[in-house]
Amino acid sequence: MGVPVEELVSTPIEDITPAYEAVRNTFFTHKTKPLEFRLLQLRQLYWAITDNTEALLEALSKDLNKPRFEALCGEIEWCRNDCVFAQNNLRKWAQDESAPDIPLTSKPLAPKIRKDPLGCVLVIGAFNFPLQLSIGPFIGAIAGGNTAILKPSELSSHTAMVMQRMIEDYLDPSAYRVIQGAIPETTALLDLKWDKIFYTGGIRVAKIIAKKAAETLTPVALELGGKNPAIVTKNADLHLAARRLLWAKSMNAGQVCISQNYTMIDQSVLPAFINELKAAMKTFYPNGLRNSPDFARIVDSRNYDRITGMLDASKGKILMGGERDEKERYLELTVVQIDNKDDALVADETFGPIVTVLPVSDLDQAIQIANEVSVTPLGIYPFGTNAETARVLDETRSGGASINDGMFHGCQPTLAFGGVGESGQGSYRGKASFECFTHRRSVVKTPSWIEGLLDIRYPPFSEKNTKKFQSMSVLKPNFNREGRPTGLAWVLSFLGY
Known about the structure:
There is one protein chain. The chain is an alpha/beta fold. The chain has 18 helices and 20 strands. The strands form 5 sheets. Strands 10-13-14-9-8-15-16 form a 7-stranded mixed sheet, with helices on both faces. A 6-stranded mixed sheet has the order 5-4-3-6-7-18, with helices on both faces. Helix 12 links the parallel strand 13 and strand 14 (about 355-360). Helix 3 (about 55-65) crosses helix 4. The protein is globular.
C-alpha cells in the first residue's frame, strides 16, 4: 500500500473557489459536527499516515535529506500519536462545561460552555517540518468539527503531494481538501472568507495574512519564528549546555523555528564552552558531518543563498566548521564568535546550522541584550543555577522556554505551543489544538418559575426594585481606601493566601 512520491502539481486557480465552496457548504449541512464522524476521520488519518510511512520517508528525504530518525520521531510518529491522542480524548474535550464562578442567584440558569466548531478553516503549512506542521493543526481542525482546506508548503513539494494523496484517499472529500501551489494559489485562498486561518512560517508573510484576514475580521493563529536567545552563565554545566545546544542546531540542519538563534555566554567560560562544542561534534558525527546519514540539507537554493549571505556579511570569526557545497545545499554546522548584537547573524533569524556565540560580561548584560534584540522571541533557553534561570524568566518574555536545554519544550507533543507578540499568536498541540479550532459558546437556560426574581429588570423601575437588585448582586469590597485588605481578607493575606 501507499501512494507514489510525485513532483508537485499546482492546483488550477479556477479550481480553488469551487473546492472552497464545496467544503464550506458541507459545514452547513452539519455533517462534521457529530463526534462519531470526527473520530472516524481521525482514525482514517492515522491509517493514512501508517500506510504511507515509506512514501513519507522517501519524500522527506528528497525534500530535506531528512534523517530517518528525525523523519519518524519528529514527523510521522508525532502525527500518528496526535491522531491517537485526539481520538482518545475528544469526547472529554467536547463535553459541555459547567460555567465557573457563577453566583448563587444565577445557578438556576444552569450556565454552561459549549464547544462549537468555528466553521470552514484554512491551514497553511511550513517547509521545515512539512508533515508535522501541516497535519498537526489539521488534526485540531478535524477534532473541532470543522471543514478544512490544507495548503502545504510548495518548498517541500514531494511531501506536499504525498499528503494530498493521503487526504484524498482516506478522508471525506466533501469536508477536507488540499490546494497545492505557491504565491498565486495562496493569494487566491486568502481572497476567500474563512472562519479561521492557521499559518506557520515567517513574519513577513504572516503580516500579509493578518492584514488580509483583518478585512473580514477573520481570526488567525500565527506560528512564527524568532531571534531566540540562549544564555549560558559561568555556573552552567558547560558539557550539557554544549551538547544540548548543538543538538538544537543540528536537528533538520538548523531549520527549526524554536532553536536558538544566538548564544550569549559568560566570557570567563567561553574557551571551555567552545571545547565542549567541538567534543560534542565529534561524538555526534564520529565519521564526519558531510557523509553522515544523520544530517539534513537546506531545503532549496534560495534559503541556502540567504544563510551563506548572512555568514558572509557577518564580522564574526569562524571557530568550527564552515564547509559548504552549493550543489548539495550542504552547510556544515558552523560555530561563529561575534562581537556585538548588531551582527548580521543576530539581526535576522538564521534558520540554519549556524551556532552564533556572543560573549557577555555577566547575566545582567545577557538579559539586556536579549530584550533589545527581540522583546518577544518564540523561545528562550537559560543555562545556570535555579536562581539565574528563574531571573531570566522573570525579566524576559517569550512564547515558551526550556531551562537548561535547547528548545525541548517544543518537543512535548501534548504541551500547548505558540508564540507571543512578534513570534506569533494562538497556540496548539494536545488539547490546545482542539481549543484552537472551537468557540467556547456561553449558554444559559432561563426557567419560567424564576420570573418572580427577574421582575426587577422590567420597567417601570422603582427604588424597591433597585434595592432588591443591589441585595442580590452587588459585591462588597474586602479592602479599604488605602488598598489594604480588611476583615477575613486581612487574615488570609497575613497567612499568605
